[in-house]
Amino acid sequence: MSFLEVSGIQVDEDGHTVLHDISFEQGEYEKIAIAGETGSGKSTLLQTIAGLVQASAGQITFEGKRVIGPHDKLVPGHEGIAYLSQHYDLPQFLRVEQVLRYANMLQGDEAETLYEVCRISHLKQRKTNQLSGGERQRIALARLLSTWPSLLLLDEPYSNLDKGHKELLKEVIHDITERLAITCILISHDPHDTLSWADRILVIKGGRIIQQGTPEQVYHHPTDTYTAGLFGSFNLIPAEAASEFVAKLGIAPQGRDILVRPEHIRFVSEAAGSLTGTVQKITFYGGFYDVQIQLSGTSINVRTQAIPAATGEKVYLTVELEQISFV
Ligand SMILES: Nc1ncnc2c1ncn2[C@@H]1O[C@H](COP(=O)(O)OP(=O)(O)OP(=O)(O)O)[C@@H](O)[C@H]1O
Questions:
Q1: Is the beta carbon of 44 within 6 A of some atom in ligand 1?
Q2: Looking at the DSSP assignment, which residues form a beta bridge with residue 33?
Q3: Distance in Å, CA 86 to ligand 1 centroid
Q4: pLDDT tens track for 202-223
Q5: Do 235-326 and 4-230 have the same topology in CATH?
Q6: What DSSP designation does 122 have?
Q7: Ligand 1 contact, 43 CB (< 6 A)
Q8: Which residues of 12-31 are buried (b: 16+ CB within 10 A; e: fewer)?
Q9: CA of 252 to the centre of ligand 1 (A)
Q10: Ligand 1: distance of its center to the CA of 15 in Å?
Q11: When you count CB atoms within 10 A of the terminal residue's CB, does the N or C end of the chain come out lower?
Q12: If you ran DSSP here, which 8-state letter would residue 154 be given?
């Protein structure tokens, strides 16, 4: 029995299918991130798992029991699943401790641990209208967790946070998993948040899961340009230019486009180079340079720590073969 089993979920809103045949399983304590462009259906999926949106087909099983949708339940939701919306709300003009006391189903020590994990112990005497956005969010999170759910669904928790509050929330989410032993699913549009955190990433496009895998798999071997673009910059070498490109590298052409990340191409000496090109443009980005190179039939971008040659000069390159994807 899986901790969470999502099977053949379809959701229709206003005669339009928002989610198509979504299936995946989650083990207890497995960290799953959901990535996808705006409007791809990420929030709808989390809300359906939480029992807040009705599925028109398929079923969700959580800890062996079916999650009932809002059409069949007087108070929508599931007591073991908490959903932190992008649009969470707190009652106005109450002290934080009052807000938490109303929601609190925990004993003294448990409550203190929760406040400590959420980094809000020092805010208990504050009024809810005297808090920053990041503080409000951590209080909303503590309020949700005070019912002691086993699964926490986080919908874009880092959006609208400045760097300091974002780093603090990352520590909070880490402790929620490690100290409170709560399993999480997280949506974020920032690849740094998902790649560095998740055990597995689900990529959603147009309401369908189009790829899933470890962060390394989706980053290094995206199955198409949509997934590649969600996680960083890439070069797409069209099939016509790709055959010459791979022939020079000593691998058989496949008649398909080639996708390769800019950091997987290296400048080498003439003797060690498989490819020859001319520097077209050099751009400094602080931690690295982006160097645009004209090769025969195509142009590529290379990420490097040092300028290989001046604009207009000849350079020699090689590519890490295992990092090439045919798409
Ligand atoms: N209640 C609703 N009624 C009608 N359409 C809806 C409803 N909820 C969602 N949709 C539509 O379903 C699609 C998916 O929306 P959803 O909010 O799940 O996407 P998302 O990937 O979370 O987007 P974002 O990253 O912008 O939050 C969108 O086209 C949206 O307009």
A1: yes
A2: 186, 201
A3: 13
A4: 999 999 999 999 999 999 999 9
A5: no
A6: G
A7: yes
A8: eeeeebbbbebebebeeebb
A9: 43
A10: 13
A11: N
A12: E
Q: What is the ipTM of this complex?
A: 0.92
For residue 157, the number of C-alpha atoms closer than 13 Å in the C-beta half-sphere is: 30
Instruction: For residue 241, report the distance from its CA to the centre of ligand 1, in Å.
Output: 39
**pTM of the predicted model over 0.95:** no
Tell me if residue 97 falls in helix, strand or coil. helix
For the chain, the structural domain boundaries read 4-230, 235-326
Contact 100, 142 (CB under 8 A): yes
CA dist 325 and 259 (Å) reads 5
Sign of CA dihedral 81, 86, 89, 90: positive
Residue 239 has pLDDT above 70, yes or no: yes
Is 3.40.50.620 the CATH number for 235-326?
no
> Domain 4-230 falls in which CATH fold?
Rossmann fold (3.40.50)
Residue 168 has pLDDT above 90, yes or no: yes
- What is the spatial distance between Cα 18 and Cα 213, in angstroms, rounded to a whole number? 23
List pLDDT tens digits, range 109-157.
778 888 899 999 999 889 888 888 899 999 999 999 988 899 999 999 9
Nearest to 152 by CA among 175, 179, 184: 184
- Per-residue pLDDT, averaged over 255-284, amounts to 91
